[in-house]
Amino acid sequence: MTESTLETSGRNGLDESGAQNSAVPPRSSRGHRFTSYDVRAFEVPGGREEDWRFTPMKRLRGLHDGSASATGSLEVEVTGDSAAKVETVDRSDERLGTAGAPADRIAAQAWSSFTEATVVTIPKDTQAAEPVTVTVHGPGQDRTAYGHLQVRAEPLSEAVVVLDYRGSGIIGDNVEMIAEDSARLSVITIHDFADDATQVSSEHVHLGKDAVFRHFAVSLGGDLVRVNTKVTFGDRGGDADLLGVYFADSGQHLEHRLLMDHAQPNCRSNVTYKGALQGDSARSVWIGDVLIQARAEGTETFELNRNLVLTEGARADSVPNLEIETGEIAGAGHASAIGRFDDEQLFYLQARGIPYDQARRLVVRGFFGEILQKITVDEVRERLEAAIDKELAAAGE
Amino acid sequence: MATLEIKDLHAEVDTEEEGSKEILTGVNLTVRSGEIHAFMGPNGSGKSTLAYAVAGHPKYRVTSGSVLLDGEEVLEMSVDERARAGLFLAMQYPVEVPGVSMSNFLRSAATATRGEAPQVRHWVKEVKQAMSDLEIDESFSERSVNEGFSGGEKKRHEILQLDLLKPKFAILDETDSGLDVDALRVVSDGINRYTESGDKGVLLITHYTRILKHIKPDYVHVFVKGQVAESGGPELADELEESGYVRFTGKKEAAAQS
User: Fold this and answer.
1) Which CDD domains match (chain B) (predicted)?
2) Angle between helices B181-195 and B120-133 (to 10 degrees)
């Protein structure tokens, strides 16, 4: 696979090897987006809107049209480093919603519907040596739950937070990730649901001055998982790295929509997502929007999405989009590619005696390798490697 | 004493313009251990197709004939089984495998062909020695397989694998093409080290006679239109160097130094 790098406002996803792929240039600004905490401010989406055109609306199970009222709740468990302060708060807590407002109807529905929120705080100037793990269990099959979580790293603090979604059900939630001035926050989000689950999650990331934010998004399980991630910068010097891996099986719809909103000078963002797809109707969508506002001089940004289509019948859509409103940037670019599983690579490895299954594993692990090796929590990395091996073994024949 | 027998092999490939097209039109050839066969022919004669068909590349369909390795039918084996049975193909265009380190790849290949994982300490030494013999910098072992390698670096790594895996039979597909004089010497030395034990068989596919100054063939075959047109000793290569393939094709095409 090769890649194409477009240096200006972009369109497209390159179809390099005949894998199915769609690419439509955006009609209007995708960066400047309407937001509101009021669900009534959003029209019920029909499915043709730019924001929804890739999403199978029926499989949202009513999250988008108000018909899914809460019939269950999320079970949230926090373990790990004791430096983290964990609170369960009600809706009136004034800290909630400060990282960003909902940008679509489901996010607003989740905001309007949650009853209690979990707030994890890393106190000022505190280094959490061990990861903090937040495990969120779904409400159970055919039950609906709305949730709200906030992870806040106070100034000069440092922590790794693992957000581990498991179980069944229909889930709409908002997650705030806040790295205050000079904080270093890493969040590893794992969407590893049972086959029936539907989740639409909106992540609001906000960086203070000189804050460093690292995000690993991992999507493996669930019938439909749609994650919106918006990063905003409150001051100069913010540095955000967002890495993602996903593995879509037969029937799964995994959608990741990212927006890097550069409104401050001298900030950096880097987005790298890689996905593999296998089996009939396995589907992935990646939308990578970057907005560099007029005052965001000295911005440096790059986004990349790669997809590996392992079998016929799987489909990946990849749409990078860059809007630049200032000429004074340090660098901006994007690349997107969808490639078929490479028979030549398999042949080469097998021609050296390496059996088919192992050769396939090597190629796919190699594909994900550059991202996986950056995951510093060993057990998470090993769990992902094992999950990928398991996915491959399941459809290896 | 091992034998590789190719008998009346026919193979075709799907082309965009003409549909399926027969490339190999009945190849007969026997290579025994200890022998070096130079396999020469003009461009488009099907030399590479023969190499790929024997190795089992999915793009080439064998329609009839047989390939026997010590009496066992190779065509019934999967690609990796062929390699584990002792066949090796040094490719003309080695494939890049991003994210898989050369060291991981070599170790996986050695484990597969030897039937057990090599002992770490011996293995590290062995690889180091083989790399230094081929004048390959140590840093290559942490790079992804063939990724960003120059043409010459790729060829050296093919021979590195040959030296480490020590197959019974090696098919070297234009390993000499695109090499400068120094690289040609290094690669040829590597091939000669491999055959030194006297129990290896080599099918050296080449368009030009240049590599035969470094590697002395026992037999020379001229391959034209998917068949062996003539077989002889080293003197046949001398004739090709003098007059090219014109006697076989009716067209002037040089076989001398590229």
Assistant:
1) ABC_FeS_Assembly (cd03217)
2) 140
| Residue A341 confidence (pLDDT) | 76
A396 interface with B at CB cutoff 8 Å = no
* Minimum Cα–Cα distance from A370: chain B residue: B99
Mutating which of A349, A356, A363, A365 best tests the B interface, going by the most B Cβ atoms within 10 A? A349
* First-to-last C-alpha distance (Å) of chain A: 24
Task: Answer yes or no: is B152 within a domain.
Answer: no
Work out the minimum CA distance from A245 to partner chain B, whole angstroms: 15
Specify the 3-state DSSP secondary structure of B166. coil
User: Is residue B128, in this structure, part of any structural domain at all?
Assistant: no
Structure tokens at B107: 């170790």
Q: Is residue B237 part of a domain?
A: yes
Q: What is the mean pLDDT of residues A170-199?
A: 97
Query: What is the identity of the amino acid at A89?
Result: V
Q: What tokens does A261 get?
A: 């909103």
Distances (CA, A) of A373 to A200, A368, A377, B13, B197: 28, 9, 10, 40, 42
**Amino acid of residue A186:** S
Which two tokens mark B27? 């190849």
Look up residue A61 and give its two tokens.
């199970």
Return the percentage of chain B with pLDDT > 70, whole number: 99
Taking the Cβ of residue A363 and every Cβ of chain B, the question of whether any pair is shorter than 8 Å is answered with yes
- Does residue B139 belong to the interface with chain A, where contact is any CB pair within 8 Å? no
Query: Using CA atoms, how far apart are residues B205 and B189, in angstroms rounded to an integer?
Result: 17
Question: Which secondary structure element, helix H or strand E, spans residue A321, and what is its range?
Answer: strand A315-324
Domain ranges of chain A: 14-342, 343-397
> Do the Cβ atoms of A353 and B113 come within 8 Å?
yes
Determine contact, residues B153/B187, Cβ cutoff 8 Å: no
Residues B65, A393: Cα–Cα separation, whole Å: 35
Cα angle A369, A372, A378 (rounded to 5 degrees) comes to: 130
Q: Please report, as a single letter, which amino acid is at residue B69.
A: L
* Mutate: best of A245, A340, A352, A365, partner B, most B CBs <10 A: A352
Q: How many angstroms away from the CA of A158 is the closest CA of chain B? A: 30
- What is the extent of the structural domain holding B196? 3-99+167-249
Q: For A341, name the nearest residue in chain B, comparing CA atoms only.
A: B97
Mean pLDDT of all residues belonging to chain B: 94
Domain count of chain B? 1
ipTM: 0.95
Instruction: Tell me if B149 is assigned to some domain.
Output: no
Q: What is the CATH number of the domain that holds B20?
A: 3.40.50.300
- Strongest mean pLDDT among A4-13, A387-396, B54-63: B54-63
Contacts of residue A180, defined as CB under 8 A and 6 or more positions apart, other chains included, come to A152, A153, A154, A155, A157, A208, A211
DSSP B97-113: EEEEEHHHHHHHHHHHH
Q: Does A251 have pLDDT greater than 80?
A: yes
Sign of CA dihedral B6, B8, B14, B16: positive
